[in-house]
Structure formats: structure tokens, C-alpha cells
Design brief:
It is a single chain. This protein has one domain: 4-Layer Sandwich (Metallo-beta-lactamase, Chain A), CATH 3.60.15.10. It is built from seven helices and 15 strands. The chain has an eight-stranded mixed sheet with strand order 1-2-3-4-5-6-7-8. α1 links the parallel β5 and β6.
Amino acid sequence: MPGTAPSTDANTRIDEIASGIFRISTPVPPGAVPGGFTFNQFLVVDEEPLLFHTGLRGIFPAVVAAISKVMPITRLRYVAFSHFEADECGALNQFLAAAPGAVPVCSAIGAMTSIGDLADQPPRAMADGEVLNLGGRRVTWFDTPHVPHGWDCGMMMETTTRTLLCGDLFTQGGDVHKPLTTGDILEPSEQMRAGLDYYAHGPATRTHLERLAQARPAVLACMHGSSYEGDGAALLRALAARLERPAIAA
């Protein structure tokens, strides 16, 4: 059963949301961000562990302290992220210094346009559909350009637990969230989008979301807010339908 390991930081917590997959979450109170917010990273523990999202540089010590409750940071082998943005990869070089055997993992576009120059280690550029072997587990890379934003966007699926590391999809505002919920995350995320529509609304949005749905995720590991356990395919298709509606008003 998923469980909780206390972090050494009072504000950052780490919770097991699927077997061997941990959500690290740092809340930002309403006084700092209107309405409050959370920044989440995900650790896949295996022979060659993978971290998805680094978080901002400022929360690096708290994230490392949380990871250290599960494993030594030096064991980390892959530092992956959806796209080039500070909360996705701001602490990338700090992680590469703390885990000298680790390499960055991103889309081919991300490697070409940003990470090949920025990272202190050459990135592993993932092709669409490419599988990364972590030992006993495998993760599959999905290119999702402009979904929700960014030419270089991509997501990863851990195949054993069918956990989709879905980046900014289903972003939920607020700083207080359950680590894992079976409740609705679509409406809270749509409320967030009503105030700040961060989607690119590209013509291939439904196509990309349908590909993710066909993978039948059982857990959606969201970068902001609660992760979701349930029929991930249905939720992704519901999101695709909502995004095809006329523009929403704030």
C-alpha cells in the first residue's frame, strides 16, 4: 500500500503513490502565490532510479532531504522532465552535482534547443515511444508538443504500475492537497485554467491526449496538486473534450 515517509523539511513531504513511486511535494502558501500552489516531483525507485521534475533551485535542499528518506541521492541515475521551465528543470545542475552518475533525460527537441547547452552533463534525448530501462521497471517516453505548452513537451509512463508522469496536465491551484485522490481533479484544474489559461490549444491536442489515454494509466502523477488514482483514460478524454470547447472566461 502507498505510504508516507516524513521529510526532514517541515513543509516538504514525500509519499508513495504507487509501488516504488514517490511524490515529493512542497507547498507555497497563499501569501507567496495567490491562492497557494504546490510543486511536485516524482521518484521512481529501481536499480537505476529516475526523478521526474527537479523543482525550482530554491527548493533543492528540501527535495533532496525528502529523497534521502527513501534512498541516498547519489543513487540517482536519471533526471527527467517534461519541458524546459524553471519548476521542471531549474535545479537540474544541482542534482547532477549531487548525483555524479546521473544524466538528464528530455525530449529530442528539448535537448536540441535548451538542455544540450544548459546541462552540465550531455542529455539523453528520448525519441517518441522510446523505452528507458531502469532495471526491473521501464518507462516509455511520449512526445506531446504544445500539450499543454512548449514545443519540447513530453511525458513518461511507468509500465509496471501504469503511472503516467503527466507534467502540467490537471494543474490544481491551492497549497493543501491529498498526495493521492480518487476524487475529481478535472474541475479543480479547469478552475485553474479559467484564471490562467496556460494551454497552447494546438490542433493536435486531442491526438496527443488520446495516445496517452490508450496507454490506460491507472495513476496520473500531476506536477501541481493531488495525483489521481482511477480511470486515467476516461479523465484524459474528458480533458480533451473540455479543451475543444470555446475559450473559458476568467
